[in-house]
Design goal:
seven-stranded mixed sheet, 8 helices
């Protein structure tokens, strides 16, 4: 294992401390915690608070997207491990400005269990809360079992849209509705070319040949739907896009936003090669791309590979997607 670290068992805490020291205009650690990152000027009184949480190792998700127009607080666990219910409850209390709190996070068993417990814990503080789960990974379950799908890079778009809705002053029910609409629309698919190494484990999360790729691989190393020989970029783009378009069944003329994301090690140059093909295919399908994003938005440590997310846009979602926001990892 070659990593720049001190103690593998302090990896999460040292990362979060460095993040908050590097960008104090956006982030601070909650008092008496090492795992809860809060909006620097929060909580905002009268605004719906939005919290998320999950394992470390995915920056900018989750903690990177804290700030005006985004999330209000995030609880972060060890690498690829859920935060505790106590940490999630702390995040909810820190995000509470008196208008209730939305729990917005990916569909993973440990996160669901602990966030449900946290919601029950903060009820004693008279904090009302709702939940929206991201389940956008088309590789992890068929459409008729969508509740079993994993949450992946669609979280980025949903964080942005929900955050803008809360910033605009919508109440908890309306922010939840908007977030659910965005979450329901997102479809994602990823391809892995290499594993990553969890610091505490000190070994790769899986093995794959130098000339192989796995389509549908999860961001924690969960198995994909197909492993085969590494293919040219256009073939990889098609393998990511085809199941998404089939799942969405969009009519010609629909507007969509597209997120082409590096899982960690893949350089942005290669993402642009993928996007070139994806844009051609989407336009050939009679769809209009609006506000595309290409870069490193949701990673899996140093895994080589990429993911594609497509979200159909109506006027409401597009308005909130393009509304002003500020954090260290958002440039649109």
């Amino acid at each position: 294992m070659k990593k720049i670290l001190n103690d593998p068992f302090s990896y999460a805490e040292e990362t979060l401390r460095g993040l908050c020291r590097a960008y104090p205009q956006y982030y601070r650690l909650a008092q008496d915690t090492t795992r809860v990152v809060v909006r620097a000027d929060g909580p905002i009184q009268g605004k719906v608070g939005i919290v998320s949480g999950g394992g470390s190792g995915h920056l900018p998700i989750f903690t990177g997207y804290v700030g005006p127009g985004f999330l209000d607080a995030v609880a972060c666990g060890d690498v690829f491990a859920s935060p505790s219910a106590d940490e999630m409850a702390t995040a909810m209390r820190e995000a509470n400005g008196g208008a209730g709190v939305l729990r917005l996070y990916g569909n993973y068993g440990g996160d669901v269990m602990n966030f449900d417990m946290a919601g029950e814990m903060v009820e004693f503080d008279d904090i009302s809360s709702t939940t929206v789960l991201l389940a956008d990974d088309v590789a992890s379950a068929p459409l008729n079992e969508r509740e079993k799908r994993r949450g992946v890079a669609g979280m980025v778009l949903t964080f942005k849209i929900a955050g803008a809705a809360a910033e605009a002053g919508l109440d908890l029910d309306e922010v939840t509705r908007v977030a659910q609409k965005a979450a329901d629309g997102c479809r994602s698919m990823g391809v892995a070319l290499s594993p990553c190494t969890v610091p505490q484990a000190g070994k790769p999360t899986f093995s794959i040949g130098d000339d192989e790729m796995e389509v549908g691989m999860g961001i924690h190393g969960e198995p994909g739907v197909k492993r085969g020989k590494l293919r040219p970029a256009n073939d990889i783009a098609d393998a990511l896009l085809d199941p998404i378009l089939a799942d969405l069944s969009l009519p010609r003329g629909e507007r969509v936003t597209v997120l082409v994301n590096s899982l960690g090690a893949t350089p942005v140059e290669e993402l642009f090669i993928l996007y070139d093909r994806i844009a051609d295919r989407i336009e050939d399908a009679g769809l209009k791309i609006a506000h595309p994003l290409v870069g490193r938005y949701a990673t899996s440590m140093e895994m080589a590979g990429a993911s594609l997310t497509v979200l159909p846009l109506d006027g409401e979602l597009e308005k909130f997607l393009t509304a002003p926001a500020a954090c260290a990892f958002w440039k649109v």
